[in-house]
Amino acid sequence: GHIVDPRTGEALAELAVAAVVSSSATDAEAFSKALLLWGGSGVDRIEDLGARGAVHVGSTVSQGRATRARR
Questions:
Q1: Could you tell me which of 69, 71, 66 has the C-alpha nearest to residue 20?
Q2: What's the pLDDT tens digit per position in 29-50?
Q3: I need a surface site. Which of 3, 5, 15, 21 has the fewest CB within 10 A?
Q4: Which pLDDT score, from 0 to 100, does residue 51 have?
Q5: Strand (E) or helix (H) holding 65
Q6: How confident is the model at residue 36, as a pLDDT?
């Protein structure tokens, strides 16, 4: 993998996808990398940091509050 967990120095082992909508592509990229590190439990945290919506798909699917509200 091309994403390294700074806590371990190892590449992420979980197969996952993170999709984030934000006000800028740079923010969305940074948020999606953080979400991959934090896992599904980080979706609300990403939205609290300013993302408009976030979804993490790993062994389970997790959506943030703002993403769930837009359905």
A1: 66
A2: 999 999 999 999 999 999 999 9
A3: 15
A4: 96
A5: helix 65-69
A6: 95
Question: What's the confidence (pLDDT) of residue 1?
Answer: 65
What pTM value is reported for the model?
A: 0.83
Cβ–Cβ under 8 Å, residues 53 and 20: yes
Q: Are 17 and 44 in contact (CB under 8 A)?
A: no
Sign of the four-CA dihedral 33, 38, 40, 41 = negative
Decide the pairing of beta strands 4-5 and 53-57. unpaired
Q: To which H or E segment does residue 11 belong?
A: strand 10-11
- Count of residues in the chain: 71
Q: Distance between CA atoms of 64 and 6, rounded to whole angstroms?
A: 24
